[in-house]
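Kindly go through the entry underneath: sequence plus fold tokens. Please state briefly how this chain folds according to its tokens.
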Amino acid sequence: MRFTPEQPEPVSISRRRLLQLSSLAVAGACAAQGANAFTAEASIVGAVDSAADASVRRPGLKLGLASYSFRKFDLDQTIAMTKRAALPYICLKSFHLPLDADDERIRAAAAKVRQSGLNLYACGVVTMHTEAQVQQAFHYAKTAAMEMIVAAPSAEMLSVIDKYVQQTGIRIAIHNHGPGDKHFPTPESAYEKIKGLDSRMGLCIDVGHTVRIGGDLLAATKQCADRLFDIHIKDVTEATPKGREIEAGRGVIDLVALLRLLREIQYAGVIAFEHESDPNDPLPGLCESVGYVRGVWDTLKRQ
């Protein structure tokens, strides 16, 4: 369900207007049959991808799920709810496919995800503080035919990770965890360590953690744009370590400015929702966030 205004939207988007758009998008995403809603979204994403010239990165809306959002549910339930929210891409957390699973189980689970129509593009967040953990993560991702690992490494492991990236061609996206993260609390702290390494080593910017630690989200996104492979999107109640994750549009993060910037830098990766609140009933809040982001993106396209 799409809202078509009689006149183009002004550059400044009012909160009331965004809530109107979000409500309509949420209704379309969650009231529709899951498979039909997903199929429509997948067609849109496919059209954007296929139309992109190899020499020009065109900003398209690639929405996905960080499956940590459904950590209280099994793989089958996670697949069903991801499709219900019309999210074509998924990054699997070990809750849904254990890192120590045998190869047969890994291949079977990956096949199940793909046969459902979802794009299993990554796994994570995966801890990489020892070489054994690095080796395990790359074997896991390679066996599942994933193109990327969203990782939480230590600085000491970066040279080891760089070696595995070159051997396998699997990309790494370092995830910042904000306050309390002793390794890479901010996107910039990771960027400075990897900018001289293989170009397939990049970042997954966690929007909420970046703001909670007092970082400048827009400045960090600009600085790290050439190594920005993935985004975990969310909103938070306050820009302090006490900030809690909340539905997009209800908190303090200027998601409108972020999405505008992602269009400007022609970000081509996935925007993955990591809905951390309401672990026992995450779908309503997730759908609200998805609707908000869709509404903002559609409005920005008309400007």
Q: What stands out?
A: Residues 1-12, 31-58 have pLDDT under 50 and may be disordered. The CA atoms of residues 159 and 208 lie 28 Å apart.
